[in-house]
Structures are given as C-alpha cells and as structure tokens.
Amino acid sequence: MRAALCLLCAGAWQLVSSGRAAAALKLSSLEKFQFKSWMVQHQKEYSVKEYHHRQQIFAQNWKKINAHNKGNHTFKMALNQFSDMSFAEIKRKYLWSEPQNCSATKSNYFRGTGPYPTSVDWRKKGKFVSAVKNQGACGSCWTFSTTGALESAVAIASGKMLSLAEQQLVDCAQGFNNHGCEGGLPSQAFEYILYNKGIMGEDTYPYKGKDGRCRFQPQKAIAFVKDVVNITLNDEEAMVEAVALYNPVSFAFEVTEDFMSYKSGIYSSASCHKTPDKVNHAVLAVGYGVNNGVPYWIVKNSWGTKWGNDGYFLIERGKNMCGLAACASYPIPQEGESLHHRHITSHVPYLWFSTQSTPVDREYSPEEPFHMCILLQ
Ligand SMILES: *[C@@H]1O[C@H](CO)[C@@H](O)[C@H](O)[C@H]1NC(C)=O
Ligand SMILES: *[C@@H]1O[C@H](CO)[C@@H](O)[C@H](O)[C@H]1NC(C)=O
Ligand SMILES: *[C@@H]1O[C@H](CO)[C@@H](O)[C@H](O)[C@H]1NC(C)=O
C-alpha cells in the first residue's frame, strides 16, 4: 500500500484510551461540574475508568483555554467537541507524518497584478456556499474541501446549489494518491472527478464516514470537472485573486494544538510551520477581509456548525500562516452534456494549450483534450 497522506481531518473522535497521562491532578468542584455539563452538551458517555481519564484531559484543556482568553491574542478559544482529548493523542492517532505531495503539484495558475477588492465573502454574494458539514470520525477533510469548492463552482456557473458526495471520494479516489479516511488532497480529488467523469450527490451516495467499496454509478453523476487549477506554491496573493475573481479555494495548512479550541477572531500562530510537508488539514477559503489592520481569510471547516464560529474560522492572511499557501487549488466545473462544448473562456480568461503532456495512464475523452491553461494578464 502507498504511504498515506498526513492530512489530519480531525472529526468526531472515537475515543480509545491509551497511554494514560502521568499523575492525576486534583480537580476543583468547578472543573468537575464543567466537565459534567460539557458531557451532557456533547452527549458523551464513558466507562468509570474512561471518565476519570477524560476528566483530567478536559480540565487541562479548560485551563489552557482560560489562560489563552486572558492573554492578548487575536482569537478566542472555547470548549468544543474535542475538549476531552489531548493533542498528543490526536497527533498519535490522527495525524500522519509522511510529507505531502502538494509541493510537487505543478501550478497552472498565473496571476495578474490586481488590485483586488479589500474584502470578499462568497456567502454574501448569493447562494454560492453550501452548508457546513461534519466529517465525523474519518480523516476525510480533503473530501469536504473538494465538494465545498465544486459545489460553489457549480453554483457560481449555473445558479444550482448541489450537495456532493464526499463518500464517493473516500471510496473511489485512491487511484489519484488519495487514501480515504487516511487523507488525501483536494487537487488530487478534482483530478479524480475530472477523469472519472463526475461525482454523485449526497442523496444518492450518502456520507458514512468510513472507508468502503466504491459504488459510483455514472448515470447518477450530477457534477463534473472540466479542469483543475493549481495555485503556485506559496503564492498567497494568487489565492486572493482566485477568491476575488473566480471561486472559493481549497487549501491545506498545519493544525497545531490551539487551533482545536478556536472559537472566534483571527487565528494566528507562532508555533505552526509554513512548509508544504507539514500541512495536515484541508479546508475551503470562501472570502477574505481586514480587521483593525489585520488581513484574514474566511474559511469553511468540516467539523460541524458547533465548532468555531458556526463552523467557520478566520486565519491571518498574507504570511503564509501555517503553510496555508502550500497546497491551494479549485475546480472549473463542466455542467454535464448540455454544456459539453461550452467554452471555458466564458468563465476565466484563459489561453489554452493542448500541447501539454497528457497523463498517459489515465483515461480521458478525445474531444476533451487535456489542457494546460495560462491566465491572460
Ligand atoms: C506522492 O506521489 C507519488 C507519485 O505519484 C506516490 O507514489 C506517493 O504515494 C504519493 N505520496 C502520498 C503521501 O500520497
Ligand atoms: C496586544 O498585542 C498587540 C499585537 O501584537 C500589540 O500591538 C499590543 O500592544 C498588545 N497589547 C498589550 C496590552 O499587550
Ligand atoms: C494539479 O494538481 C494535481 C494533483 O496534485 C496534479 O495531478 C495535476 O497534474 C496538477 N495540474 C497541473 C496542470 O499541473
């Protein structure tokens, strides 16, 4: 089997206790009470042994959250569904250590010089962003980043808001270096949808949150990819242009411990890395803006609406924060047979080359030759 990607894709964790922490701390009655209310709120149940272990971790997390919120930071933290887990545990069980392939991804995006609007929010432009979803206990963040970007692309091109099947990507996209619940990359998933000729809807291929057998039925495909746009490694300004002019953009970044408890404000970290081999979670940029002089991205996550700011977070923009500019891409949709011959230049001012090398090991239709495109300046 191929080495799996290290995308984190944290979900609603299935707790397996191991590696008990050192000496138990004596907890205050307030901490015990907090933990009980949190358990009710998150409908948690544990064995007696598990209860004490989780209570300890919870108390430590709660302390960190309170200390952080007293400090001078651009974002606030809060308890959420991850509060009974240590980050070491999350890392051991859910983070992969193999480097990503995203730095090897060739770019085909050449940006202009701007200027670009100071703020953009695709959620406010119309019905262009689907509802926040929840990946659950499966390392499938990359599938949600993928469907989110394609759902927006289809909505922008046709006015139709579809809900697309993450499970199809989990079950079927292995041929493109994706690894189901063990990770993957949006750019590789767009390639899969392109060469597979389509993706089904959530209704006909519902999300299960675990690896399964591929059940793709071509006649039930409802969304199609015409081309994949890979943004140049570390060119965050190109991400700004793409979000401003064309589409929400899928990207990956490195999640470190404090991010798990993010609640609101602009996330910023001094401890995360900026290199493409460290990114471990994929999400979707749906806009950007500036607050008190701090530029930020507006990002849709896939940890449900109770996490963060109604399922969204803001992250500092312009510094390649946590490597967020390492792995950005978005799809150009093809709206099925009726629009088969529609010229892509109606969407983006591209100059087309058909001379680029074709991926010989992959199926593609002769009337849809593989293209490399260059954005006209
Ligand atoms: C990266 O790409 C290479 C070549 O396609 C592949 O063999 C390898 O498994 C990929 N790595 C990951 C982590 O998917
Ligand atoms: C808080 O942080 C900001 C930005 O780092 C800094 O400009 C400001 O002086 C800090 N305020 C205090 C009270 O430390
Ligand atoms: C875009 O990225 C994907 C996956 O990383 C890759 O297969 C594809 O060849 C790239 N496209 C271009 C034009 O380089």
Overview of this structure, please?
The protein has helices at residues 29-41, 48-70, 87-94, 122-125, 141-158, 166-172, 186-196, 236-245; strands at residues 75-77, 120-121, 224-230, 249-253, 262-267, 281-291, 294-300, 312-316, 329-334, 350-353, 372-375. The protein is an alpha+beta fold and 377 residues long. Helix content is 25%, strand content 16%. Strands 1, 2, 4, 5, 6, 7 and 8 form a 7-stranded mixed β-sheet that branches. Strands 3-9 form a two-stranded antiparallel ribbon. A two-stranded antiparallel sheet has the order 10-11. It contains 8 helices and 11 strands. Residues 2-3, 5, 98, 101, 177 line the site of one 2-acetamido-2-deoxy-beta-D-glucopyranose.
